[in-house]
Amino acid sequence: MMESFQDHTRDFLKNVKRVVVKVGTAVVTRSDGRLALGRLGALLEQLKELNSQGFEIILVSSGAVGVGRQRLRYRKLVNSSLADLQKPQNELDGKACAAVGQSSLMALYDTLFSQLDVTSSQLLVTDSDFRDEDFRKQLYDTVQSLLDLRVIPIFNENDAVSTRKAPYEDSSGIFWDNDSLAGLLALELKADLLVLLSDVEGLYSGPPSEPNSKLIHTYIRAKHQAEITFGDKSRVGRGGMTAKVNAAYCAACAGIPVVITSGFAMDSIIKVLEGKRVGTLFHRDAHLWVKQVGAREMAVAARESSRRLQALQSQDRRKILLDVADALEANESLIKVENEADVAAAQEAGYAKSLVSRLALKPGKISSLAKSIRILADMEEPIGQILKRTELADGLILEKTSCPLGVLLIVFESRPDALVQIASLAIRSGNGLLLKGGKEAMRSNAILHKVITSAIPDTVGEKLIGLVTSREEIPDLLKLDDVIDLVIPRGSNKLVSQIKESTKIPVLGHADGICHVYVDKSANLDVAKNIVIDAKIDYPAACNAMETLLVHKDLACNGALNELVVELQHEGVGLFGGPRASKLLKIPETRLFHHEYNSMVCTVEIVDDVRAAIDHIHQHGSAHTDCIVAEDQKVAETFLCQVDSAAVFHNASTRFCDGARFGLGAEVGISTSRIHARGPVGVEGLLTTRWILRGNGHVVDGDQGVVYTHKNLALQS
């Protein structure tokens, strides 16, 4: 995005007269808890200067509790004996600290303002005050009178008599800290601008101490909400940057511009009012001030970065993957926090258990993903491999080589671990990548994308992997068949079908995962039980989980079918039956064989023999993964040869159909297409070929002087 901060800020600053300034505890006090007199003096000199220029200044100040705690600790120390000091020290009551600190803080403000020939006044408010409409009207009238007299009102929450359970802990009510109080007052008092002073320069993309964090000059919610990673809350006080952002966004939506900037700088407020590019601006129309990076620009940037990636030496591409793995493990706790927030939100929103299960990054998952990436890094270099060498004529050598597809667009739902697998495969295969995850995994995807792209060197560029944050961008991306080379949807049948119907770009994937296990009459029953149970319950939400159990009719007569059903029911699997099975087993009849449950439910049906099983699979399956359990090798070979699915297994669970388990390192998805790639799609599925011809001045000239030999040559690395 291209920001035009100064032009727009100067426009709205022309009409600014009434300014609310909020100063936090971290600005008012030093790291040892004592008042920062020099900092406060510089701040008040700015307010005096603005007051004399005709601006109406309203100050909201934190710090009373901190000042009171410092004074009471000193008083307690003075009045304690040596024996008292050796006893465990109880924490001081926050409300008592507020009562003592408020008078001290106001005395200091009064003294400093008096030295500057400015009159100040104190107004203490509580949350309950604002529930009274008469109070709010009187408050406005009183402040208006004070401002007319050039008096600077100083507001603070009256923590000493507040009905909150404890300062810094209870966040209920109309306002919940002095940041939100400042926002509320800006609305009530019809301010033209709100300035929130912090102990850092503004809002950063991550904790300011991290080297890759960048200052955000203009906050655009649609862009930045998913990108920002907040660090710890304020070392003192109730808020921190999260509280400031919430207060700023609410005030901006109500039409009051807000700037978060440093309270440590000598002239930050004056610079804001001069329209200088300081801090972070929140404005209701900010999204209209930026030139959006469109779908085409994003795809083109990914392609350019991919070409730079391909130009690197093999060991340099390998190092990027190893750095990504290290970065994931180093940031595991941060990733866990964001993922837990997504899971909690999904549960609160009432999402299906299967979706929540796919959403959660379970313990050990990050380590497992990092391990897979390292395995991928150690695999044979896929780019530039010579697949075939042919001598066309004397001295004219043709080579068929592997190369990346170009730019991939992956649209996926629920599973944030898919982002990691896909990104690592894109890097290994030299492809540019655009990712669009589901809104339910927004925070997880944002932090994972941030961690991964931070490991990509500037020589390649972080735009190699773009994260699409808005659903509205997808239709535009799907039109870019001249820039995007392959779309891979991972998700529901509805998602895959919609994408296939909406684009000319080749689509790789599967709409359904309706996997079958056929138990033949020759099967070893114990083997059958183990495979059936594993295929269903190992991970019911997976696309390679068994959805239909087909059983030879002879097993219905000898009791084997009953044993299989009992095993499933014992594990908590719900059963539906086809016409034959439902009648025999007394279970509900399924309305549709072509159904993907993604849960602890499956369909059971009885078939006459292996050919009937094959016909059933072709009629009702999705050509994903199907399995036969049999000891009769001839029957097994018939099944393996004739079932037209991407993966067909003999005496092995359908759950083995997975890129990592196949030794591919990872997978971008499982394809049921018949063109390009089929089954689990790893690095090879993301490559295509090109032809390299090496000659020595050869020309065609009507083929008059060319003697074609078309001789196959040995491959060279």
Question: Topology of this protein?
Answer:
Layout: H1 5-13, E1 18-23, H2 25-28, H3 37-52, E2 56-61, H4 64-78, H5 82-85, H6 94-115, E3 120-125, H7 133-148, E4 152-157, H8 178-188, E5 193-198, H9 221-224, H10 241-253, E6 258-262, H11 268-273, E7 280-282, H12 295-310, H13 314-330, H14 332-348, H15 353-359, H16 365-377, E8 386-393, E9 396-404, E10 407-412, H17 416-429, E11 432-436, H18 442-454, E12 465-467, H19 474-477, E13 486-490, H20 493-501, E14 515-519, H21 525-537, E15 546-552, H22 553-557, H23 560-570, E16 574-577, H24 579-585, E17 601-607, H25 610-620, E18 625-629, H26 633-642, E19 647-650, E20 669-671, E21 679-681, E22 687-694, E23 708-713
Parallel strand pairs: 1-2, 1-5, 2-4, 3-4, 5-6, 10-11, 10-13, 11-12, 14-15, 14-18, 15-17, 16-17, 18-19
Antiparallel strand pairs: 6-7, 8-9, 8-23, 9-22, 20-21
Protein name: Delta-1-pyrroline-5-carboxylate synthase
Domain Aldehyde dehydrogenase: 296-556
InterPro entries: AceGlu_kinase-like_sf, Ald_DH/histidinol_DH, Ald_DH_C, Ald_DH_N, Aldehyde_DH_dom, Asp/Glu/Uridylate_kinase, G-glutamylP_reductase_CS, Glu/AcGlu_kinase
